[in-house]
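May I ask for an example protein's residues together with how it folds?

___
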Amino acid sequence: MNTTALLLFSVVAFVAIATPGPTVLLALTNGSRYGLRRSVPGMLGAVVSDLVLVGAVALGLGALLAASEFWFGVLKWVGAAYLAWLGLRMLRSQGGFEVPGDDGSPHGLVSGRSIFAKSFLVAATNPKGYLFCSALLPQFIDPATAQAPQYISIAIVFAGLDFLVMFGYALTGAKAVRLLKASATRWLDRACGGALLALAGSLAFYRRANT
């Protein structure tokens, strides 16, 4: 893979990552709930899911999902159910956001492992990501040279861009919660929950034939 191809991939990947989706909403709410520092595990969860995604595409999982209606359906319904569960929890939230303290720590106790797992599972159970990457990534791979180093380069760039974008959304959420009133933050919580439910619905009705 030459430098021009890698730069072009970076632009396409940045647009795809920055477009609002489930992981972006989680980064925003994590920043609002827990502060920027405590949101880092969620960013790392997104990064690990990127590595899994690119690795899976390199090994042919994206092609398998495109060809197998059964496995596509399994991953699709698992992902839709998990998004719906997260959305319902946000909608039922009674206390709004926990405003982080001056040291960046939240008043409530939420484990970094839990924050990591949510972001990872949301991304890793979305079949759209596998199909999208299985269609996109090969266009930037030079078949005349070793493919493993090229996929490693793509994975590093993809994960780095994802971390930067998630960092930006978490920072936005952390800053916004200090400016908004408690009632406004509760509505923001519910808006994000509703958005996740809508995304769960769109995923449930998503079909392989549309790819």
The first helix runs from residue 3 to 18. The two ends are 26 Å apart (CA to CA). DSSP finds nine helices and no strands in the chain.
